[in-house]
Design a protein that fits this description.
mainly alpha; 24 helices; globular
């Protein structure tokens, strides 16, 4: 690190930053940023779009919120009453004190859990691991709640729309075309719901947020290193993943241990922004250098996946990240992006050029998928075909709605797939949840002081934006493990917003 600080490039960077800080361009951009903020705050058009809606504002004090909060906290309340009646007995027990101590550190336990869960190879993975892991975290949380009256599950900060979405999943099973096929998918969504509930409730401070981001960073590091190893060893070209007529010379796409290159890329666009926060928030040079290494390896692995939708998604995520974190850096960011274009490998540049090429079978094959999904919506717009890809596949096959060459796996569109699985209520809850969380995070980071919690909140919101853009051409919940990672990032944004609001209240 000393050599880095004494290097020519480091001093050149400091000189350029000083010149930019004193330049007219910086003053113009600062004034432009202030003008944009005033337009957002005062605009009759933008203000209704940016402010919190009536339903979201009413949720924390609503009767439904209080009822559900009481129900989910009932086990903890009963355990606390038991502790109060037998406090001496529990305090004299080594095992009880150990359980209480572990319950108080549920957020730390979660960071270790996600490190372990998300680096298990696909060949050894079982979707029950997520359900068992997050159920165990819930039990740990209740153990903490047993001796602490203030340690309660937090539905207020989870919001109304996510609960609507999760409720629609139960309805999607009840009204499914094939309920038996849909039932196992319900457990995947229950795992995701437990992840959100425990994360938002257990995280109380900035350090716990940073530990969760570090847990995601371990997943990025291990999976990316294995992806780079695959590239060094050589990856056989799978023609089902790429059209070689318009991608001649492109090497095989790495998939790490996630069984599919698109799935691996989706994991990276969700977690790489959190790794970036470790660089920005690290207090020590060594940890910052390690985070930089993880980020570079992750970006390299993302390039090796040759996943075009994910490339567009990560680009969107980085733009949103810069805009939320430090808008005045947007010109510098734009210049760096332009300068990086000549440095792109030829195979990646050629792959980018095929994004809108109708001759690419990967692009053209999506049209019959979209048509089939739209036919399902026409036939069953309210209830959909049923939860899970298996039920929608059976429904589409029964009514002969798909006429493509490749088998129908899913709609290759996040929004269409959620609609045909969970119906109108599901897609409204899904879109409402994403917009509400991103808007709330953006509003909070614009009005709070600079801190690590603010930076992590920016990154989580940016990752959600990137995944939503990627979702225009792919379905991120096709693998249940990726679904849990998605909801983990969603929960980090909520928890970050909660911590930022608490910091503002303490000022």
């Amino acid at each position: 690190m000393t050599l880095l600080r004494e290097s020519y490039l480091y001093h050149l960077w400091l000189t350029l930053c000083a010149i930019y800080g004193d330049s007219t361009l910086h003053q113009i951009m600062a004034r432009l940023g202030g003008w944009c903020n005033r337009q957002i705050d005062e605009s009759r058009i933008l203000k209704p779009l940016c402010r919190e809606g009536v339903v979201a504002r009413a949720w924390p004090e609503s009767g439904l919120c209080r009822l559900l909060t009481f129900l989910v906290n009932l086990p903890g309340w009963l355990l606390h009453k038991l502790y109060g009646a037998l406090s001496v007995t529990f305090e004299d027990s080594v095992f009880a004190r150990l359980a209480f101590a572990m319950g108080d550190e549920t957020a730390i336990a979660q960071s270790w859990l996600i490190m372990l869960l998300w680096i298990i190879p696909f060949s050894h993975w079982n979707n029950a691991y997520s359900l068992m892991g997050f159920t165990l975290l819930l039990v740990l949380f209740y153990a903490g709640a047993m001796h602490r009256e203030d340690y309660r599950l937090d539905l207020r900060n989870i919001g109304f729309y996510p609960l609507v979405l999760f409720a629609s999943m139960f309805l999607a099973v009840a009204f499914s075309y094939a309920p038996s096929l849909s039932m196992r998918f319900l457990f995947y969504h229950i795992s995701a719901a437990l992840c959100v509930l425990v994360t938002v409730s257990a995280v109380q401070c900035t350090e716990e947020l940073k530990r969760l981001a570090a847990g995601g960073g371990v997943c990025v590091l291990v999976s990316s290193l294995y992806g780079v190893y695959q590239r060094i060893q050589g990856v056989e070209v799978n023609e089902s993943y790429v059209d070689m007529t318009v991608n001649a010379g492109m090497p095989g796409r790495v998939e790490s241990f996630f069984d599919n290159p698109n799935t691996f890329a989706e994991v990276l666009i969700l977690l790489l922004p959190l790794v970036l926060t470790l660089i920005l928030c690290s207090r020590h040079s060594i940890s910052r250098l390690v985070a930089c290494g993880v980020f570079v390896v992750g970006v390299a692995a993302l390039g090796m996946t040759y996943s075009r939708a994910s490339w567009v998604g990560i680009a969107c995520a980085m733009v949103v990240m810069v805009f939320l974190w430090k808008p005045k850096l947007i010109p510098v960011f734009a210049v760096l992006c332009v300068l990086c274009i000549p440095l792109l490998p030829t195979t990646i540049w050629n792959r980018i050029l095929t994004i809108a090429n109708p001759a690419d079978s990967s692009t053209s094959s999506r049209i019959p998928l979209y048509q089939a999904a739209l036919e399902v919506i026409k036939k069953s717009p309210i209830s959909g075909a049923g939860l899970g890809t298996a039920a929608t596949q059976a429904y589409i096959k029964e009514y002969n709605l798909y006429h493509g060459e490749a088998p129908f796996v899913h709609a290759h569109n996040f929004y269409l797939e959620v609609w045909i699985e969970a119906g109108l209520l599901g897609v409204v809850g899904f879109v409402g949840s994403m917009l509400w969380n991103i808007k709330r995070s953006a509003h909070t980071v614009r009005h709070c002081t600079d801190s690590a919690a603010r930076t992590i909140t920016c990154a989580a919101a940016a990752a959600l934006c990137g995944s939503m853009v990627c979702g225009l051409a792919d379905y991120l919940w096709n693998y249940p493990r990726v679904m849990c990672i998605f909801w983990f990032v969603f929960a980090v944004a909520l928890a970050g917003t909660k911590v930022c609001c608490a910091e503002m209240a303490d000022i």
